Queue: 2 jobs
Job 1
Amino acid sequence: MKAMVLVGADKPLEYKEVDKPTLAPGEVLVQLKAAALNRRDYWISIGKYAGIKYPTILGSDGAGVVVEAADGAGAGWIGKEVIINPGQNFGDHADFQGPDFKILGLPDDGTLAEYVKVKAEDLYAKPSHLTFEQAAAIPLAALTAYRAFFTKGRAKSGDKVLVVGAGAGTGTYAVQFAVAAGCQVFVTSGTSEKIDRARQLGAAAGVNYKAQDWAEELKHLSGGFDVVIDSALGKDFAKIPDICNPGARIVFFGATAGAIPELNPRTIFSKQLQLLGTMMGSPDDFTNMLKLVNDHQIVPIVDEVFSLAETQKAIDKMGNSSQFGKLVISIS
Ligand SMILES: NC(=O)c1ccc[n+]([C@@H]2O[C@H](COP(=O)([O-])OP(=O)(O)OC[C@H]3O[C@@H](n4cnc5c(N)ncnc54)[C@H](OP(=O)(O)O)[C@@H]3O)[C@@H](O)[C@H]2O)c1
């Protein structure tokens, strides 16, 4: 089969012929119609990720059709249109993943290929209102945004929420989900065009995080936030507690712009703020996220579709953050 393979440090991904996966008990073979990128693929491709090994087929997100099952565990899925939950072996505790947790697309071969093997338990029916390319854009980013907002952030209708970096794959889902849940949504983004796009998705207003007074402007526009979702962090994170309401939850799962700076502890304890880390999500989060997508007929924001052979071009685009939403790879 054809696949995009990570072949070595500081080398572009290679489009090459590799062996089709062979199934172990409990596994199914999915013929992929589309895959999608996450920042994780970019970090791995530039060597900034733990546990990198060569060769590996990258890709955590995929949608396709089940063509083979090792045994009865997956037999009922043959011929079905599916998406794959890339968070494998989450474990028994709902609050955090267990020691066997792993993410599809490193260490195991991922979705940037014509076929991928996964456990039957990681399959979910593809939402019928979506194309394969739209559905492939869902798994990792939508799961992470859903858990950040609802499971950890406890966002509810009427809350004022802030999505930092609304143009991110995770950011566009955060905006769509919060709007669907009846929250009043504010955003930051790196360009006025992206802020306009977020407003078209239902955000009330936004500011450019490159502006000197972005925090004051947001406080003025919103009055203060009940839930903040931040996947960028970096030095600007120090201002977030200042623009939160008492009892607010600040949830983070990435550090695109760098580490957490020095924070004013007095602001955090006097407002009784909660700083919450989160990581992808449990199978229950995945099920609930898909229910929200189906109930509200949410259509993922696909920035651009590339062919499998063009994957490196898509990764380079992610590297300069010029996308709004998801970068999708069409496979067959
Ligand atoms: N722990 C987990 O489970 C988990 C899961 C998913 C993602 N992540 C992490 O979360 C982050 C986002 O992932 P993704 O796949 O959604 O990334 P992505 O699609 O590549 O988006 C990255 C976005 O970061 C925003 N950004 C860059 N610099 C910023 C700054 N200084 N201030 C605010 N925003 C800034 C940009 O937003 P604009 O386009 O709006 O300017 C950019 O589009 C990554 O660091 C990723 O590794 C972690």
Job 2
Amino acid sequence: MIIDIHGHYTTAPKALEEWRNRQIAALKDPALAPRVSELKISDDELRESIETNQLAKMKERGSDLTIFSPRASFMAHHIGDFNTSATWSAICNELCHRVSQLFPDNFIGAAMLPQSSGVDPATSVAELEKCVKEYGFVAINLNPDPSGGHWTSPPLTDRHWYPIYEKMAEYDIPAMIHVSTSCNACFHTTGAHYINADTTAFMQLLQGDLFKDFPTLKFIIPHGGGAAPYHWGRYRGLAQEMKKPLLKDHLLNNIFFDTCVYHQPGIDLLTRVIPVENVLFASEMIGAVRGIDPETGHYYDDTRRYIEAASLSDEERYKIFEGNARRVYPRLDAALKTKGK
Ligand SMILES: [Zn+2]
């Protein structure tokens, strides 16, 4: 079985974006505020948006199940206030839930949180609970920078974030550390802000001792871990100077990297530098990079090819494709086992 742990609903019907545009317009003129009930998307529309996109590509490329969350760049936690984010995240999460109901063998949800810049993360707990208890979601996406590129929140190791971590520990769900769109012109959203955030999150966790307080907490650093694997020597050296334990003891029981790295040498490096137990298959397909690589003739985000071509044993490949995901997402494993998988 091949589990893709990083998929977003980037192909949702246009009505969703139109509703969001009205919600944003209403921040200036509240009379324009759309009601949630005004957003109407039928099951057929959902089915079509998936069957012609993600599901078609999953079949072509041979992946079976995708952990599916709302479109990350559309979370835009910097827009409006908590109520703006709460309404928007509830809508987006419900759509992912409906997709997971329509295609129960192919999609399982991960929640977007109603984070809002400058607002206590404890306010996100109710939506998190609903998504786990009512929707059967198996993970969350946690935005370390709800300001959208201005980095006004404390580091992830700060007690500020503990209400989220307490719930994660209680439900045994991991978080993918995932920023949203950048509203800072210095940082291109997917080319700079995403990769910066991955690297920044890793370094924050290295500097702190968060996993002493939360030994079971699990984070996935997406996009191959940003710069961390490439600069592993730098991080080992910094940890040494800071009198931290070896990275394998300090971080690697709790931090995992996905394979959203869009060329063979990057995957070769990732799987050579990072223990295979800490690498999880993902493509983030129909996401940041949608084109075909002229050097290979294949889609950049067809990451399965790179794992197949990497120098790995069958056992190691099994861990990356399936085994690690079952370990890091215990609720996913449980859901699969109830289906006899
Ligand atoms: Zn993503």
